[in-house]
TrEMBL record:
InterPro entries: Glycosyltransferase_ALG3
Coiled-coil region list: none
EC top class, as a word: transferase
Record protein name field: dolichyl-P-Man:Man5GlcNAc2-PP-dolichol alpha-1,3-mannosyltransferase
Transmembrane stretches, start-end: 24-47, 79-102, 123-145, 151-169, 181-206, 239-259, 304-322, 342-359, 366-384
Amino acid sequence: MARRSATHVKHDASFLGIFKSSKVAFAFGLIIMDALLVALIITYVPYTKIDWDAYMSQVSGFLEGERDYSNLKGDTGPLVYPAGFLYVYSAIQYITGGEVYSAQLPWWGLSLLCLSKRVHSIFVLRLFNDCFAMTFLHAALALLLDQRWHLGLIIFSVAVSIKMNVLLYAPPLFLLLLKALGIFGVISTLASAALVQILFGFPFLISHPVAYVSRAFNLGRVFIHFWSVNFKFVPEPVFVSKGFAISLLTTHLVVLAAFSHYRWCKHEGGLLNFLHSRYVAMKMKFAGLSSSNSSSRILKKEHIVTTMFAGNFIGIVCARSLHYQFYLWYFYSLPYLLWRTPFPTLLRLILFMGVELCWNVYPSNIYSSLLLLCLHLVILYGLWSAPTEYPYVDDKPTTKKNK
């Protein structure tokens, strides 16, 4: 009994010792305050029915046995998200009975940042699928920081199955995979991610594969000009034109290539030299001249986060249309990205508040969208001009087994 009591006291002391750190105590305080704020929002701010009814209609069709994606529709139109979306909102409908108020309870929201009016609105008052997609994306990133590449890719694929905007992280993630793993490791992690998509989409792929793929993975959608937050200053005929879309895609690819060559692969001699080294390593692997783990490396956490967040931000800057809920795609990365720039703290705070201001202008106008683009470009310049960190924990290849 005495031993059990001593053990219990020891555990209590260890738990309380966590809060001796001022950073942990401050973070815990933010969580408590944000939980209270969310409760007040739910209680006193009316819910805005934008997509909730459509989501529930689409889920109801799925639960009633419909497997043809072209027949899954709601008030706002046809279902255009992959199958993971249906599974998430089916679970929400089961838990809440389809009632908005029950679904608003922040059981998953305690760890969220609490500095944005717009983000609270998106999470609590509108319940867009962007919320769940980004939650899974951040969970995947946490696993990548722990060097759990296979499990991280599986969770990343779950996020993609809810909304495809997560694919903006795919190019920097692929580059990190090439750095961290050997060729067989890259192939197996990508296969794991692909298997998730096949499993989630299986009920639809075996019945109506064309309808599922064409609806759930439609990359050619043209968003409505009125809802655009970033390029509202562009005339609508130009905004919806294929030429404008191609020019933005080209810019996206060029900027990604420039960051990859001059920033993320700087210590490997540039992107082309790095890819050549991976090619040589692959040839040696197939020739049996290298061990199975000889090309695996442990990446620094700062390099993983910087590459992922910056790669996604480049996609945000070059996106043709950003609707209000798309703010979630990069809001949680903004403080980190700003503090990676060489700017003084005051300018970082001004940029953060300026971006938040632009996202809270409704409806967006020529001036707010032009200001947002300028702020994005300033942040992008700051990331370009920031010092590059050495990407690896050590200079020697690691033999640590990938989890």
